[in-house]
Amino acid sequence: MASVNIRFTKLFVNNEFVDSFSGKTFPTHNPATEQKIADVSEADKADVDLAVKAAKAAFARGSEWRNMDASARAKLINKLADLIDRDAKSLAALESLDNGKPLEDAVLEMLGSADVLRYYAGFCDKIHGNTIPSDGNQFAITRKEPIGVVGQIIPWNYPVPMAIWKWGPALAAGCTIVLKPAEQTPLTALELAALSKEAGFPKGVINVLNGFGPTCGAALAMHNDVRKICFTGSTEIGHKILEYSAKSNLKSVNLELGGKSPLVIFDDADLDEAVKIAHNAIFSNHGQNCCAGSRTFVQAGIYDEFVKRAAEMARDRKVGDPFKSGTQQGPQVDKPSLDKILRLVESGIKEGAKLEAGGKKIGNVGYFVEPTVFSNVKDDMSIAQEEIFGPVQSILKFNTLEEVIERANNTQYGLASGVITNNINNAMVFAQAVEAGSVWVNCYDAITPQTPFGGFKMSGLGRDLGKDSLSGYLETKTISIKLPCKN
């Protein structure tokens, strides 16, 4: 196991690391070696109650957080960003150990997360209401107010970025937070919690609970003092989150869910560039990416050559120790994830797709799988319908623009999409017709702090990132004042 300092394994409540109420713990494992890294405290309903109580007290009228100037709130968020930059290498090493992603990629994710915080720090003193020319002798204004205590549940594929995508707008708006990281990857969230205390955030503003979905996550989503729940994960659990909202206090819900995103490549594209973009679109982060370009549509005129080059690039991808320089793909996060990938690869073979590269587990230790490419994929095959969440590229053939638009939209999902072409008409027609929250033209995964990210259809509700995400953490209050006359 790589030598990484494990500093925190408890729960973080009211600016202190504490044992769980029950005293229970659970292990987190290194997916490259299958060895236990550490035992961490396991939160359940009693711990959720304590954390929400702390967050509610921090949000109360007259509290330090509520009385803080917006500009001072921005300084705290910027301070947290500076601390993440300072500790980027150690945070990245911990992330690689717990998640399996290549260290070099993890460092970039830490730096990018700091940038997200700085983006939202700039909004703190720029959240404005309006004056409204209402009818009658009324003077009307709107006031933007933080929604209150926010529960946030994040996945294991991008542990630090997912936490920061949710912390940034919530803190800028003035909310308080109870975060549940994924049980597979709790360690870096606890480091972020420690950094928030070092930055100077008041007690109760940020709380972090390690735990499992059915106990900790469900209790958070059901809690009547939580005003908003933000969840990133599977569509299946997204349904449950909505149920919990309905069964409790009708809390606001933000969901960023699954995807089966199409990447469409026309025959006028630069072939080498298209192969590279499509490769990164699916194999980035080991394919563990909700917006992965997992359905690669290639126009008939270049299909055969594209398949040949895509398979060659997949075979050349370097899989191995995430701490070794040059590694492009580490292990999948856990055995259930690996087993699902291998099951779907087997289904692709059985249903008639042609296996061009990969398809097998690598070695006897760790959850490594070969980068895999299928050709002759049909729309009704399991590998073209189910979210694999692994390094499996499915290449489908198409002939016309209208055909590929219809096929691209023939899915329950609508998270992301891409189109590669030198024809501006094809690019714009596709971009306007595709049912997806993001459309990337001649690129893929072009996600920045400024650009809203979220899905259509069963890929979710609401948005992360960009100015749009702030609105989900704010209430609009209308104040109307009667005047003796209208001016």
Describe it.
By secondary structure, the protein is α/β, with parallel strands linked by helices. It is globular and about 75 Å long. It has 2 domains: 264 residues, Aldehyde Dehydrogenase, Chain A, domain 1 (3-Layer(aba) Sandwich), CATH 3.40.605.10; 187 residues, Aldehyde Dehydrogenase, Chain A, domain 2 (3-Layer(aba) Sandwich), CATH 3.40.309. The relative contact order is 0.13. The protein has 16 helices and 22 strands. The mean pLDDT is 97. A hairpin with a 2-residue loop joins strand 1 and strand 2.
Essential attributes:
single chain, 487 residues, alpha/beta, Aldehyde Dehydrogenase, Chain A, domain 1, Aldehyde Dehydrogenase, Chain A, domain 2, seven-stranded mixed β-sheet, six-stranded mixed β-sheet, globular, Ald_DH_CS_CYS, oxidoreductase activity, acting on the aldehyde or oxo group of donors, NAD or NADP as acceptor, Aldehyde dehydrogenase domain-containing protein, Aldehyde_DH_dom
